[in-house]
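G., the chain you wanted modeled:
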Amino acid sequence: MTLEQQKEAIIAVLKTIRDPEIPVDIYSMGLIYGIEVDGADVSIEMTLTTPACPVAESLPKEVETKVAALEGIEAVRVDLVWDPPWSVEKLSEAARLEMGLM
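Predicted structure as C-alpha cells:
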C-alpha cells in the first residue's frame, strides 16, 4: 500500500467516527488538524470542539484504536491540541449542509 493509499484509508476510518453531540464525522467537522504517516507509524493531531468536551478522553482513544486496526499500521499517536481553537468555520461544506448551516 502506498503512503497516499494509507492516508486515504486513515481518512476513511476517521470519517466513521462521529462526535456524539453533533451528527457529523470528526474529519468533516475539521477536528483533525494533521495526519503524518511514516511507514507503519501514524501521528494524528486533533482537537475537540471545547476543552470541556465530555468525550475528551474517549474520542482520541477511539481514533487511536480504529486507525491502529488498519492493515500495515503498527503504532498510532494521537496528540490533542487546542491551538488553533476549533470553530464552526472548520466544518467541511458537506458538514455545513448536513447541519443546515448553508
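Residues 3-98 form a domain with the GMP Synthetase; Chain A, domain 3 fold (CATH 3.30.300.130).

Shout if anything looks off.
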